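seq as requested:
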Amino acid sequence: MFPPSAAWYPELRGKPIQPAELPFCEAVPTTAEEMLMYYGFCPEANPHDRLTLDISVPDGPRAAEIEVMLRLYGMSTEHSLRPAVIRPGEDSAEPPLGVWAALGLLPPQLFRCLRLFLSEDLDLLDLDAAPGQGGQLEVDLQVLATIEELLQGLLTPLVDESDRTTSSSRPLWWPFFGDIVQAFRASQRDLLEANLHDAIRLRARLELEAAADDAADDLPIAKRQKLDTENQVVFRSKKRLAASLTSRCFAVLL
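struct tokens:
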């Protein structure tokens, strides 16, 4: 606790607080990791929490080209996941497809970065198009599947508590700091699950839209096939009728 203006005047740090004097404490948005490391506690809900992902450019002949594209678009390979202010399932309103808000909690720059990594033809790539737009639906579905796999991998050690079930497998510091560490693990698990939920939801919506588009494209073909079948039935009926009439005519003539 510091007196007023101590944050701006370091020489005032350590000055005793006088009676009736308003104490001052500098507070800034802090992640759960920083709170655990510097203050020794972790809140259950922290809207300022972030989990930073650092993804590497894939090796291969396209690595140099991808590096150039990253610099050209000013894109970083570090991306921050944020927690859900409203837990998954509590908000029924979904943003429409065709806008970047459809990503939910997922960082748009992470999506654009993975789109760049996974695209086979960079000349046809449109990094500014919203998810599922610009003729990139197939690539975007791969991006979402990659994000799901990445988040699932990060979640696995946080969900698996089998190594903490017995006291013999716990570290010596567990009786003193176990509850705090568990609170931190729970906060990171909630953050990852919220982002994973949005990735799964968006992929399902895009797949449903793709299936609807395919059905719409196949509809004229189905109609033509139906008409062809009906025409064949009518043709066979007329042919049988003509054959019957011909037989009758021959019978009359004979």
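The longest strand covers residues 51-54.
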